[in-house]
Amino acid sequence: MNNTEIKCAIEAILFANGGPVSIDSLSNALEEKKPQVKLMLDELIEEYNSSTHGIAIIRLEDSYQMCNKKEYGEYIRRVMDLKRNTPLSQAALEVLAVIAYNQPVTKAFVEQVRGVDCSGVVGSLTTKGLIEEKGRLELPGRPLLYGTTDNFLRCFQLESLDDLPPLPKPENDENGKAENTDAELEETIEKATDEIIDNIN
């Protein structure tokens, strides 16, 4: 296939699939090498980013998805009679931030960081498709591990977890060593959570 045919095929696949499609799947389906497919995807993304299109192609880690541009979301909701999703609560944002930066983690880890029970919030975030089970920890009881999803990246307009804002670094003592007392650790966690929420809310 020539480049135009490859791009047309990619458009058709992404449109028909609806969800994210990995570059490996695209490469296999088109019988083209990944660098060539990646080049065509980059060109398509640039074309769709122009002001003359109401849809876009976004990258989610190693996958790509076709979606509407956010400025046209209200018109889509009117046609499809969709209601706006309830905004995430402060507790949900905090739990999501802890999981996003430390994944995969157990619910017990999140509760240790926040100091309160998180069962309800974890369940809600799972239902919303923002986090998912990532296996089990090889410890007694084999607790579940949680991590973020492609939907998390899409909702917060991130191409990958590498795009998360950096965490604030703990202050060093006079000898250049990081302080790690319980009080200082708690303060660092609070500062980190505040900065995470400021960046993703």
Verbal overview:
This protein is α+β, with helices and mostly antiparallel strands. The chain folds into two domains: 3-79, Winged helix-like DNA-binding domain superfamily/Winged helix DNA-binding domain (Arc Repressor Mutant, subunit A), CATH 1.10.10.10; 90-200, Orthogonal Bundle (Arc Repressor Mutant, subunit A). Helix content is 50%, strand content 12%. The protein is built from nine helices and five strands. The strands form two sheets. A three-stranded antiparallel β-sheet has the order 1-3-2. Strands 4-5 form a two-stranded antiparallel ribbon. Strand 2 and strand 3 (63-68) form a beta hairpin. Helix 5 (90-102) packs across helix 9 (182-200). The mean pLDDT is 81.
Helices and strands, with pairings:
Elements: H1 3-17, E1 21-22, H2 23-30, H3 34-48, E2 55-60, E3 63-68, H4 73-80, H5 90-102, H6 107-114, H7 119-127, E4 131-136, E5 144-148, H8 150-155, H9 182-200
Antiparallel strand pairs: 1-3, 2-3, 4-5
Please give a quick description of this structure:
The chain is of the alpha+beta class. It has nine helices and five strands.
Which descriptors would you attach to this protein?
Arc Repressor Mutant, subunit A; alpha+beta; single chain; 201 residues; 50% helix; globular
